[in-house]
């Protein structure tokens, strides 16, 4: 008798093998399954080989065979890397919290994201991995959060995220640069002085502002219950605005706001008094007075 057919069954597909006369072996060139074997039991595709002779006798070998089983475990690896998306902080953002939550999502639609490879690097520090990164399993991957243990200094910072899938494909590293700003802008008002009393309705507010981390700084000035109006701030941080005071007590509110949204507020109270005092009565006692002697002058004044 002689061998009639040799077949291999992989992933539900049957493939016929042909005799290679030069090697004496039955062979076939087969296209591997399109998906990674990592998600399968044992991380491989089981292969079944059936040999049938002319008399109809069949021998079958599977991956459970004690002798040949290890040769019937086909490992298939994907070549598509996971995808990383950083959701917070956003690029170029200003953050007033020195320990911002860094959130990102990693997905892979085949072998799956290997959670042990997920890493976060802040600036030039060491890569952070493991349980310090919170990982929530979602469809196709993980939603992750990392909050720094140590407060970040004010200024610019860059976060980088890395990950690989179970087949060893490394995702393209994603990074985002943002600024920490926990300090409000400086604000100094040079005029008017607080509690100024004047008979001039024209009043000019002058000052200077700055913020080392989050320039430029915007300034608004509000007189009494009016609307806060933006003023032009020079490159050196100086500003001025002319106001017209109302009779009586006036409240001027100056607010400096940096790019992170932190504010510094200064108020000035200025009283406008344009009414001259009234002299109601004058008494000279005694009158007449002896030469060389003293007398008392008494004046009644209201204002």
UniProtKB/TrEMBL annotation:
Pfam families with a match to the protein in the record: Big_13 (PF19077), Glucodextran_B (PF09136)
Domain Bacterial Ig-like, chain residue ranges per copy: 103-182
InterPro entries: Big_13, Ig-like_fold
Protein name as catalogued: Bacterial Ig-like domain-containing protein
Provenance organism: Blautia intestinalis
Higher taxonomy: Bacteria, Bacillati, Bacillota, Clostridia, Lachnospirales
